[in-house]
Amino acid sequence: MAKAPDNSVAVSGNVMFYTNPQPLNKDKHAGFGVKQVDRPFDYMATQHFIPLTAAEFGPASNSFPVIFAGEEKNPLGVMGIRPGDNLFVTDGQFAQDFYLPAFARRYPFVLANDSTNDRFIVCVDEDAECVTKNKPERTFFNGETASDFTQEAFQFLQNFENDRRTTLQMIEMFKEMDLFEPKDMHFQGNNPDGSPAERQKIADYFAVTEDRLRGLPESKLKALNDRGFLAVAHAHMVSLNNWQRLVNMTLRRAGEEQELAAKTYKKTELTKMLEADLVKIANAKGIAATVNDLKKDTIDKIIKSQKK
Questions:
Q1: Among residues 55, 82, 256, 275, which one has the fewest Cβ atoms lying within 10 Å of its Cβ?
Q2: What is the pLDDT of residue 138?
Q3: pLDDT grade, residue 4 (50/70/90)?
Q4: Over the chain, what HEC string results?
């Protein structure tokens, strides 16, 4: 059972999103807690693949493709087709109309395996922007005991761990039944002149297919159905229809980025022209100035000279 440790335990390994996870300790973290921040989901903005559990395939299937990746066939939600670009996060906010994976919802908490004592311990990312000791809105501890907020987080982590283990069991069943089929996804956009761009591969992944499910004997289909895994497989297949959504979202975001870049370029060019004009005015008034030293005091001198 997960619990807040009383003693310091070394944490090793890397987990997506977390930069400084430390065991949650009532002595070390007395007075610590969380606060609201302006950009609460900045931590996931550069991750376009997010781990999922089997329990999430249903709700996630309406939002983005759910795939199986790598030799271990790890389930992932695809939240972007460009590396480092999560299409569902804009200016630190997550798009409310879409499913937010539990892997992200648990942040800044995470479970770590304490193999020495054969237990899981709860950790918190001390570098998370929302974690603070300066008047937190929700504290981690009330005196000697974990706060209601922390207890809820513990329960969430326990549920997540149980779902993760169930997911591993599902993957093993899928492997044993030879349900995985290699797939790939390609994307072809347009060049600035409107001509078709070079076709690019977005991802290599594994998928469960309808044909392979149909090929199973009744006994194996029943075994999948009894565990709830048949419904998970169908949700996964439905989710693959969301590839086009990601393409459309990517094209829309790319267009917005190009428009912003064009505006920035125009503003920069206009600034350069204004600076050049100011230097000419300054020199004509006998004020020594170059573009590099157009500071406020120099500009004030130019304005005053124009009023004379």
A1: 256
A2: 97
A3: very low
A4: CCECCCCCCCCCCCCCCCCCEEECCCCCCCCCEECCCCCCCHHHCCCCEEECCHHHHHHHCCCCCEEEECCCCEEEEECCCCCCCCCCEECCEECCCCCCCHHHHCCCEEEEEECCCCEEEEEEECCCCCEECCCCCEECEECCEECHHHHHHHHHHHHHHHHHHHHHHHHHHHHHCCCEEEEEEEECCECCCCCECCCEEEEEEEEECHHHHHCCCHHHHHHHHHHCHHHHHHHHHHHHHHHHHHHHHHHHHHHHHHHHHHHHHHHHHHHHHHHHHHHHHHHHCCCCCCHHHCCHHHHHHHHHHHHC
